[in-house]
Amino acid sequence: MPKSFSRIGIVGAGAWGFALALAARRAGRDVRLWGRPGGAFAQLSAHRRSDLVPGVELPFEIALADDMGELEDCDALLLATPAQSTRRALAELGAALRRRPPLVLCAKGVETASGEFLTDVASPAGFPLAVLSGPSFATDVAAGLPTAVTLAAADPRLAAALADALQGPNFRLYDSDDPRGVEIGGAAKNVLAIACGAAAGLNLGASASAALVARGFAELTRLGASFGARPETLMGLAGLGDLVLTCASAQSRNFAFGFDLGRGLAPIAAGGGRLAEGAHTAPALVRLARARGVDMPIAEAVNAVLSGEITARESVELLLARPRKREY
Prior knowledge:
By secondary structure, the protein is α/β, with parallel strands linked by helices. The protein folds into 2 domains: 7-177, NAD(P)-binding Rossmann-like Domain (Rossmann fold), CATH 3.40.50.720; 182-320, Orthogonal Bundle (N-(1-d-carboxylethyl)-l-norvaline Dehydrogenase, domain 2). It is built from 14 helices and 8 strands. The relative contact order is 0.11.
């Protein structure tokens, strides 16, 4: 295992991949950013700018590649493709690379088709795995604004070495050996952010939003406990920290998606066509919770709205009509 991870490959040139490439370069790493040929990546190659991250230019020190084989000599890879594209990206990486360097999963979600967490999806590919998550908007990271995240791996030495390699000015990493807890925090908060966005779209007020965050965190904690996640992980950056950020800002795609649902837009029209990972994660998250006997009424309500069973306003009425109970 390289001690310095001097060469980092970024797989995926969307907003998050763009931002992570900049963060890794600021940390002193040699960076190679891969994107699919043509389209937006061709524009990025020509102009060193992305419409997804306005006002930030990619320095020429960051190499661009549209052939995955050019990542062969990287000491570690950061997989920044959407959660539902993880399996496809891994298959392509496996075919393109002879080596299996450490791979950091940077998406937040559960695979809808299989109901698997991304580490479970990635495990058969043979890469040593880590997970990166926490309260971080791509535009903030790209602009070099102060951000703190968690990097977790089952091997604590790997987590610490990768965190050291990626730590740079205004990008602070905390290492952890609880990747499942980090995954649960990242996946569940996207679904809960849709609920908070819907409350804002319905003009329910700040008190209702605070209640949703608090009760949503209780749901996240119950699910995490059923998987053996550590309470301190869920109370940290990858759990509570990310939940607070995503549930309180229109900059969040999931919040914006939920806001449109609250205003009465259909799921197919909500969010202005931008990816809202929570919409994909909700049905898988609900299935996981049901299978483990975990009560997640807010996640259930979001899933019911997305499936067209009820409206956003009806979901609020149903939540308020639930029998009174002790907290937690």
